[in-house]
């Protein structure tokens, strides 16, 4: 195993297309030590599918970031609602949070939301006409999940755009001060929103969420942190899911033509679209609490461990010809929603939103095309998520 000398996840070429780098790393060793940042720090990066599944369920890997940084100096100033949410916790605290979150996204609740999702898509596409240009990211992929999650949280319509922008800032890997400031905007806003709702009991989605939190034993701070997680995770990854899926189809005309001719295939195609270009490139922070082995590689205690669903989903040992979009492939083993106790509870809602968006777009504008060459598109500068900054399309 030859470890890279520089952080492979900060190369500008990585943001444009991470898959060649992932292939090289996986071929070298699917679990390897890499440099991170410029301070002489290291982490272990997992790029193999079997190894990623193993790591996702290893109890020796903790998501408790407060525990990791307790004796490590840091100049970060994240709001507690962002730094101490369900994604940054282990059982039993995680179990209580997850029990409440899972209630929000049961099959029945998502089914009840589908008419609202359809109405939102219809409203967003009002005014779209063949021959006109749109930005699919700004005009559909961002506002759809933002509107849905803000409806669940009872966020007034006038506040939604600003809240979405601050959520977007949380993923800016180039400006930690901006990230910290955004976390406080979101945490403070949601604290006020929840306190106001508690002071004015009524019926509605937010009050239903508060009842679920009370029944689940979550206190005020934990309720705010869950709301923040729903806001951030509930729209950022779905935005990238929709954008990445549309781009993948436009770059694979045969697959696009199949779905245009038979939109009922879209639901089954979602797993392959998620596998092919995952909205989550590297999963959220984990660290080793003891010496452990993953994929036959020793990982000492006290190291950050980065699990890459984006890399694992292109592992040829699990998915033959992984760089080819194949709608006939059984891709249900993809890891874009994670695996184990931290698997994304909002996956059913994300799938419902993406399916509705794709079905409506392909039905109304079946011959839509890219307005600019695919290699001119720009991608977010973050290793955590993979998503476009814009997707210019000409409707047809």
Automatic annotation (TrEMBL):
Point out the coiled-coil segments of this chain.
Answer: none
Q: According to its UniProt record, what is one Pfam family this protein matches?
A: p450
Key words of the record:
Heme, Iron, Metal-binding, Monooxygenase, Oxidoreductase
User: What terms describe the molecular function in GO for this protein?
Assistant: heme binding; iron ion binding; monooxygenase activity; oxidoreductase activity, acting on paired donors, with incorporation or reduction of molecular oxygen
Family to which this protein belongs: Belongs to the cytochrome P450 family.
Designated name of the protein: Cytochrome
